[in-house]
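Researcher: I'm comparing several assemblies side by side, and this is the next one on my list. It has 589 residues spread over two chains. Same procedure as the others: predict the full complex and return the structure.
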Amino acid sequence: MIDEIVHIAGNSSLFGLLTRPDAGPVRGPILVLLNAGLIPRMGPFRLHVTLARQMAAKGNATFRFDLPGIGDTMLDSPMTSLPAVTMALDAIERHVGATRFVIAGLCRGADLAWKVALHDPRVTGVLQIDGLARTGLWFQLAQIRHRLGWPSGQWLTVASRFVSRQLRRQALSIGDLDREWPPVGAERAQLRELLERRVHVFSLFTGGITSYFLDARQFTATYGSLARDPRVRFAFWPECDHIFFSETDRARMIGEVLDWYSTAFGHAADAAPREKTSIGNGE
Amino acid sequence: MKPDPSATNEGQCVPPCSQEQHDGQAFVGTDQPSLGTSQVATCPPKPFWLGAPGRRLFATWYAGSAAPSAVVVICPPFFHEQFLSSRLFGLIAARLAQAGIACLRIDYYGTGDSEGSDAEFSIHGASEDIAVAVTAARARAAGAPVVLLGIRAGGWPAWSVAANDASISQLWVWQPILSGNEYLAELQRLDKAERTLRADYPFCRQLGSYQEDGQLMGYACPESLHHEIRNAQLTSHRLPDSTVLGVLTDHHTLEIPGFALRRIELPKSRTQWKDRLEVRATFLTRELHEPVDRLIAMLGTPRITA
């Protein structure tokens, strides 16, 4: 495997790391990993590094970088995230000749991945982990069902934990207010638009976003019948937390992504990256 | 895993920062949670690969256009503290670079973007990596005094390197950990708390203990590393007489028994970032400007413009 430094914009701090096989063509589109919230490009517990290396072992290339204001990327200019991702795709295209990309993100990164997919026709796949879902009836029912099952003492425990968490201002708690989602209902039209472009979508939800996702049926309720399209893959892992604290969960997630990649893009006649035209030497 | 061999450029000159960037500098090194502000970074980090094939390290170089008055090798902390503090020390490096002090940041082998898996990380290996970084820093900033800045447990390998290299002019430790035993106890307490936190989520599978899965704070901690940490002591080696020792920490731990040292006190509110998995806790806020600027002054440069 080869790790290359790819500069996104000249004389700026915008750069990323392209991990790819050291021999043979890169199969399929390039996977671009966005920051999970404010966590640097290596991902929580090095998740993105491990994923990139396992992708390379399967013949795929992965690019990870820091958005403006996160990790190593200084605020060189008043640039927002979306144009920064576009510049990153341009840079990878210049560097290896790839013209197809899969954008992946967790939490707010998932929201951005969705936006990029809508914005950039080069995107052929979206992986959103703990992305958009509306609460609605299934969520409310799941809440009631769950709370009815609580023993009396648990009400007190949960209430005290809630108060404690508020006092400690737990940053990893998730709430709708922290997300940039389109108006209710817009996601259906957006999914239709993506599917008409033959974009593959993989939505994975964990058990760490109980503030808005508790029931697998919320996914179909959110996206409508298009959620059952063959190009849409959905998984709900309630036993897994939001940032994949457990190595077991990280390994499972990576295995699932590799399987999706193989299924969705494995037989695609994607143009292999051309011979390197420049060397990512970091200077 | 091997980075592109031709991508290595140790010792190569760094393109100067443009004057426009310097002129546009208003809040260098200040961090804000929102994007899209008018902040301008003066000396963008220059990434490169460092070290021998098979043990390539990811490194970033921060320097202004003039010859630096000193060069600081930043030795990161371990486990979750590495990714939590990554941006903070990137911004501090940028601030130092603006003041004429070059900085070299590295990811140890088996951490960050460097080669190797988590399980391959060791304190002994980190010492070797720092020694490699010192050589690279000297090559890039010929003639400038070399300083080591060890953060938390990163102070252990930094101290070890300084003890064996009399040409290291200063060793600074940021929130040092004196005893490996204490650190292990702290890690295990935090690890248990993180695992317990899953109980707040009704469906999350409860995780076993470190003894069951060998993971500490989400990272592999094999027995060999556990043993190294348990036996680690910050002051296990004597420092050369010529090496200046300094400490940045809160007022509780401003002494290192048996050593004369320079002290810079950090605001207590900015020393708790290590206690929770919250990246936001490590922003370089204005509260940290004063201690960082004092560090700059003690490293021997009067130039700071922000």
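Model: For your comparison table: Chain B touches chain A through 67 residues (CB under 8 Å).
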